[in-house]
Design brief:
With 677 residues, the protein is an alpha/beta fold. The protein has 26 helices and 19 strands.
Length: 677
């Protein structure tokens, strides 16, 4: 049994011990948690596919959503599909009060009510989007009942806490194929996110086709871009799942791709190609030429025919623009218009762009840097700097979206993201100011991702963040969240996401064999370092091969929280908790037994060899863990220098190595510190 499988088995055994597999007992695996839920008795037996009734508003969008949901339940429960000699008998009523607008808006009513009884299930919603959310909840409610399946009797009245619940994916630094975008959108719909923020332009590439300015992709995409037909297809795909698509076109900074294609836009020196290095570029669009605004006006007018959403993101961050401080023509412009510095010049630029956006009947959105004196109140500020910046914007009268705590590239565990709140009860904002906080947005930057790893970087952590955006603020039990994250992660993979299977695939590729049991066990306790730490250590660029152990392993592996929870229980009763002690001792043995074979494979692979030290360190950790268990069980005090030596070892293991870190290291430290001396 591998460590990962051992963890999963132990987790489930400890979490749901005593529950009968045949009892019709509600198992709350819902994510996000509904606003209100009451549990009835019994449930709806699934011994037939559904007989669907749609007594209210119905159109192709709703019909397709119902069909997809029914098919997923059929697949999950082994039911025969209606129309193939099968007559549906399980009653499902989906009632929608009014048709949705052609373009989904921020004001969409996403609420729904779901009632399940032994006689059938009914979803009532104001709009199709609310009905879609109800269908996703219905799918998550399905549970085994001995030899069959059922849906527990429940009454749910649900509505989101925030109107803006987004995921930003950077497809400009590394291009992601259409299939990746679609499966990402499927995952978003499953956890009730409603905004796909599509980062399409960067220093490293321009990824959206323009017929008006063909050189944008002709020169600045390496041939990797979305045609307008691709983009329209994705917009339609997202709308069919209740998700808006907000495009981002970075300006005036992060604009090397613009400027290489059209040098007439530059502020001074010309780039000689798209930028392969990551980080902040000095190149910036010239805000002083009238031709700049003519160019952008024509481009945004064209993009408005591709992206119908009422919001457009113009970036606006990290534009040092040294040419704005030295170019004589730009200096003269600043003096003539009484613009004292670069911030004032960028505010001028933003105001001009806002006029273009407004003419297109859209709202402008930008990162923190757009928040400058005199900025019109119609602009939505997306905060990457933190809650203080978001709060400042609200106090000044600006709508805002929080992203700072939800940067997935930091490789923080789901628990850290989960407890960060766009609008905590401790906020000092007034009711009117609180209403300006639209919600939050997860950010997946693209420096170190490609189609084989993007899913494991986004999922399942984003499901936990989605709950923060949807559920009431007091839903904050981390242990319960992780308990529910296991089944939702499996559900997400059933939609076509690859976040679980990709690790095994990468390990097989690195070793050239299917026999990776020992290496998988080793990998189950390590995780990648952050993007920034990788960049500092490896000096990566867009051309860096993403094919090392860091790219194979997942952030926040299941073993991390399982181990943390088991040790927490043990330390509450070190002598009496024999069950957790036995499970932990067996797990330490499983880990240590895997090291020799894993180390052999690591040394045989040039791309893995750097991790051999980590394998040796795992042996040190497991030995340390076993010794700690023995001391805690006996109550015997450790020798005077034992803890000091172990702390020194822990400190050494905590140092950077092989671009991976032990996700379980803090909990090993907790064990050591608990030993009396």
């Amino acid at each position: 049994m591998t460590a990962l499988r051992f963890c999963a088995t132990a987790t489930l055994a400890l979490a749901i011990s005593g529950l009968s597999a045949t009892a019709q007992q509600f198992q709350n695996h819902l994510m996000p948690q509904p606003a209100k839920i009451s549990i009835g008795s019994g449930g709806l037996a699934l011994d037939s596919t559904f007989a669907v009734e749609v007594p209210g508003v119905s159109d192709a969008r709703l019909t397709d959503a119902i069909d997809r949901a029914v098919r997923r339940i059929e697949m999950d429960t082994g039911l025969r599909h209606a129309g193939r000699g099968e007559v549906g008998k399980t009653k499902l009523v989906v009632k929608v009060d009014r048709p949705s607008a052609p373009v989904q808006s921020l004001e969409e009513d996403e609420s729904y009510a779901l009632v399940v009884t032994p006689a059938g299930a009914e979803i009532d919603a104001a709009t199709e989007v609310g009905a879609m959310h109800g269908l996703e909840t219905l799918i998550q409610l399905v549970q085994p009942n001995g030899a069959s399946y059922f849906i527990p009797a429940v009454t749910i009245n649900d509505t989101p806490r925030f109107r803006w619940r987004g995921l930003m994916v950077d497809c400009a630094r590394h291009f992601e194929p259409v299939a990746v975008i679609k499966r990402t959108i499927d995952g978003m719909a499953a956890v009730k996110l409603n905004v796909f923020h599509w980062h399409l332009t960067e220093d490293q590439g321009f990824r959206i086709q323009s017929h008006v300015y063909p050189a944008l992709t002709g020169k600045s995409s390496d041939g990797l871009f979305y045609t307008q037909q691709d983009a329209k297809e994705i917009v339609a795909y997202a709308r069919a799942r209740g998700i808006r698509v907000v495009p981002e076109f970075e300006m005036p900074g992060h604009s090397t791709a613009w400027l290489f294609a059209y040098p007439s836009l530059v502020s001074g020196s010309n780039p000689d190609g798209v930028r392969r290095e990551f980080g902040i570029s000095d190149y910036a669009i010239d805000p002083t030429r009238e031709a700049t605004y003519t160019f952008i006006d024509r481009f945004l007018t064209e993009m408005a025919t591709v992206f119908p959403d009422s919001y457009v993101h113009i970036g606006g961050d990290e534009a040092p623009a040294p040419d704005w401080k030295t170019n004589p023509r730009i200096l003269a412009f600043k003096k003539a218009h009484n613009l004292k510095d670069n911030d004032a010049l960028q505010a001028w630029f933003n105001t001009r762009i806002l006029k273009i956006v407004a003419r297109l009947h859209k709202h402008m959105m930008g990162w923190d840097e757009v928040l400058t004196p005199g900025l019109p109140k119609d602009v939505v500020v997306q905060s990457w700097r933190g809650e203080a910046s978001l709060s400042k914007g609200a106090k000044l009268g600006y709508k805002g979206v929080l992203s700072a705590p939800y940067y997935l590239d930091a490789m923080k565990p789901a628990s850290v993201h989960y407890l960060a709140d766009p609008l905590p009860s401790t906020s000092d904002l007034t009711p009117d100011q609180r209403a300006l906080i639209l919600g939050g947005e997860v950010c997946m930057w693209g420096e170190h991702i490609f189609p084989g790893t993007i899913d494991s970087r986004i999922w399942p952590r984003t499901a936990a963040i989605a709950e923060r955006f949807w559920s009431p603020e007091n839903v904050r039990d981390v242990d319960d969240m992780y308990h529910r994250l296991i089944p939702i992660s499996v559900e997400l993979e059933s939609l076509g996401l690859t976040h679980i299977q990709s690790e095994d695939a990468a390990l097989r590729e690195l070793t050239g064999t299917e026999n990776i049991d020992a290496l998988r066990t080793f990998a189950s306790v390590v995780e990648p370092v952050s993007f920034s730490e990788r960049s500092e250590t490896q000096r990566t660029s867009q051309l860096t091969a993403l094919d090392r152990l860091i790219d194979a392993v997942r952030p926040d592996p299941p073993a991390r929280h399982w181990f943390e929870a088991a040790v927490k229980r043990l330390l509450a009763d070190p002598k009496g908790d024999s069950a957790d002690r036995a499970v932990l001792a067996a797990w330490f043995t499983t880990l240590s037994d895997a090291v020799p074979a894993a180390r052999q494979q690591i040394l045989a692979s040039p791309r893995l060899a750097e991790a051999s030290t980590r394998a040796d360190q795992l042996l040190e950790l497991t030995a340390m863990g076993q010794q700690s268990l023995e001391y805690l069980a006996s109550g015997e005090k450790a020798t005077s220098d034992w803890k000091a030596k172990k702390n020194q070892t822990l400190e050494e293991i905590g140092k950077p190595s092989a671009l991976v870190r032990f996700a379980v290291l803090p909990t090993f430290s907790d064990l050591v510190q608990a030993v009396p001396e």
